[in-house]
UniProtKB/TrEMBL annotation, chain A:
<feature type="domain" description="Fumarylacetoacetase-like C-terminal">
    <location>
        <begin position="37"/>
        <end position="240"/>
    </location>
</feature>
<protein>
    <recommendedName>
        <fullName>Fumarylacetoacetase-like C-terminal domain-containing protein</fullName>
    </recommendedName>
</protein>
<dbReference type="GO" id="GO:0005739">
    <property type="term" value="C:mitochondrion"/>
</dbReference>
<dbReference type="InterPro" id="IPR036663">
    <property type="entry name" value="Fumarylacetoacetase_C_sf"/>
</dbReference>
<keyword id="KW-0479">Metal-binding</keyword>
<comment type="similarity">
    <text>Belongs to the FAH family.</text>
</comment>
<dbReference type="GO" id="GO:0006107">
    <property type="term" value="P:oxaloacetate metabolic process"/>
</dbReference>
<dbReference type="Pfam" id="PF01557">
    <property type="entry name" value="FAA_hydrolase"/>
</dbReference>
<comment type="function">
    <text>Tautomerase that converts enol-oxaloacetate, a strong inhibitor of succinate dehydrogenase, to the physiological keto form of oxaloacetate.</text>
</comment>
From TrEMBL, chain B:
<keyword id="KW-0479">Metal-binding</keyword>
<protein>
    <recommendedName>
        <fullName>Fumarylacetoacetase-like C-terminal domain-containing protein</fullName>
    </recommendedName>
</protein>
<dbReference type="GO" id="GO:0005739">
    <property type="term" value="C:mitochondrion"/>
</dbReference>
<comment type="similarity">
    <text>Belongs to the FAH family.</text>
</comment>
<dbReference type="GO" id="GO:0018773">
    <property type="term" value="F:acetylpyruvate hydrolase activity"/>
</dbReference>
<feature type="domain" description="Fumarylacetoacetase-like C-terminal">
    <location>
        <begin position="39"/>
        <end position="242"/>
    </location>
</feature>
<dbReference type="InterPro" id="IPR036663">
    <property type="entry name" value="Fumarylacetoacetase_C_sf"/>
</dbReference>
<dbReference type="GO" id="GO:0046872">
    <property type="term" value="F:metal ion binding"/>
</dbReference>
<dbReference type="InterPro" id="IPR011234">
    <property type="entry name" value="Fumarylacetoacetase-like_C"/>
</dbReference>
Length: 250, 251
């Protein structure tokens, strides 16, 4: 049975007008519930800073985050949890693509047929743990995969975004603007990412691709601070940042 | 259900009769666990001799990496095939004891950790070694080397009750009937309870999640056209062909 959000019902007077957007929104949200993995694309935005010397990539840098790292936005959402002994995490605001159905070896020309929706996500990272891993040639795991390290908004159905390269991503910490960028600065675009990733691993319904972050303005957020972020005129989310408390239940 | 029981009995010594009556239900429950899996957590360099054979330092903490559930290749009645992607000609085999988690586990103390084990399996952590070396030297993730489809061949799940002591098992692997790896799980550096405790302090483990607990020495290449047989002595074995991956798109 389809659940129609009371908010949507209130906004639309006519029941026939309300039905299609409500159905699409509910279907998009259910996609995320079946997610089996999160695939991040690193270094996927052009930098406008003059002194960043990152080499131009020939292929996307892919890393995995587990679904246990999701932190779903909402009125009852918990905080982003900073594990001891860290005092801060780095925030990275990203456009997330949610896959609609099983995708394997997808050609770029068909790739958008496999998109079910979009969301606003944060790829929270521990810079300290990640730097240590990189210099030792170790996997990026500890810095990226911890619980609550992938805050994510509700899913917006694909039909709600005519052009994913015409969006503005923004992020504030305690009301102060830290990141602001345009998805037109994405280096490897969504069809290429879906094609490339699906040639390495099968993407399943609900799988999420984090498409990268505008690098200028990536920085630390400390325990006790609050993050607001969004896609201008489309999505708004808010997360507190708190110290993680360890809790075991049998 | 019957198929799973047959598969176990055809591949291992008979289970003691006191457990036979309970076996089908337990085996089916253990297999269902794997179907719920949300992630595979690999533990690198968890056997001293294996760390040394690759020239790696012996770690002070477990080295963890992720493999997606899309990489599972389930052993079956028809021989399953590991797929080698172009332009590679071979992959490295790594035979491992896989631990299957029985229920949600977060911040689990070592003393309680075995309560969260639902079963065990024989798994292979197939690795594109050259791609891994490139990733290590450039500080990049291990994704291409570890996460591709069919890179985690896995046997049926053996219920926990069939394994009184996971530290007392022998892992073995043959390529075209030539023994390549053989080692006791007693050589594991970080034992199963510690691994569950450590990993669950970093990320919540869910029912069905799989921990690959590391591989003994003897890792090496297996080429397209060869056949892998591997197992846990007296418990379970599995067989996998190695083929060239053919790319197939269905719209």
């Amino acid at each position: 049975k389809l659940f129609v959000s009371p908010k949507l019902r209130k906004k639309n007077q006519s029941s026939t007008v309300a039905t299609l957007p409500a159905m699409a929104a509910a279907a998009a949200q259910r996609l995320l519930a079946s997610s089996t993995k999160i695939v991040g694309a690193g270094r996927n935005y052009i930098s406008h800073a003059k002194d960043l010397g990152n080499p131009v990539l020939k292929e996307p840098v892919l890393f995995l985050k587990p679904t246990s790292s999701f932190l779903h936005a909402g009125p009852t959402a918990g905080p982003i949890e900073v594990p001891e002994p860290l005092e801060s995490l780095h925030h990275e605001v990203e456009l997330a693509v949610v896959i609609s159905r099983r995708a394997r070896d997808v050609p770029e020309a068909s790739a958008m047929d496999f998109v079910g929706g979009y969301a606003l996500a944060l790829d929270m990272s521990s810079n300290d743990l990640q730097s240590a891993s990189k210099s030792a040639g170790l996997p990026w795991t500890l810095g990226k995969v911890q619980d609550t390290f992938t805050p994510i908004s509700a899913v917006v159905p694909k039909s709600a975004i005519a052009n994913p390269y015409d969006l503005e991503l923004w992020l504030k910490v305690d009301g102060e603007l830290r990141q602001k960028g345009l998805t037109s600065d994405m280096i490897f675009k969504i069809p290429f990412l879906i094609s490339y990733i699906s040639s390495i691993m099968t993407l399943m319904e609900g799988d999420v691709i984090l498409t990268g972050t505008p690098p200028d303005g990536v920085g630390p957020v400390r325990v006790g601070q609050k993050i607001n972020a969004g896609i201008t005129d489309l999505i708004d989310v808010e997360f507190d940042v708190e110290r993680r408390k360890r809790s075991f239940s049998y | 259900m019957l198929l799973v029981v047959y598969h176990l009995q055809s591949r291992s010594r008979p289970i003691p009769s006191s457990q036979v009556a309970a076996l089908p239900a337990m085996a089916a429950a253990a297999q269902r666990l794997l179907a719920a899996s949300t992630k595979i957590v690999g533990v690198g360099r968890n056997y001293v001799a294996h760390a040394k054979e690759l020239g790696n330092p012996v770690p002070k903490e477990p080295v963890l990496f992720l493999k997606p559930t899309s990489s599972f290749l389930h052993a079956g009645v028809a021989t399953a095939a590991v797929e080698v992607p172009e332009p590679l000609e071979s992959l490295h085999h790594e035979v491992e004891l896989a631990v299957v988690i029985s229920r949600r586990a977060r911040d689990v103390p070592e003393a309680s950790a075995m309560d969260f084990v639902g079963g065990y399996a024989l798994a292979l952590d197939m690795t594109a070694r050259d791609l891994q070396s490139v990733a290590k030297s450039t500080g990049l993730p291990w994704t291409l080397a570890k996460a591709q489809d069919t890179f985690t061949p896995i046997s049926a799940v053996v219920p926990k009750s069939a394994v009184p002591n996971p530290d007392d098992l022998e892992l073995w692997l043959k390529v075209d009937d030539e023994l390549r790896q053989k080692g006791p799980t007693s050589d594991m550096i970080f034992k199963v309870p510690f691994l569950i405790s450590y990993i669950s302090s970093i990320m919540t483990l869910m029912e069905g999640d799989v921990i690959l607990t590391g591989t003994p020495e003897g890792v090496g290449p297996v080429r397209i056209g060869q056949k892998i047989k591997a197992g846990i002595t007296g418990l379970i074995e599995a067989e996998f062909d190695v083929q060239r991956r053919s790319r197939t798109f269905s719209p």
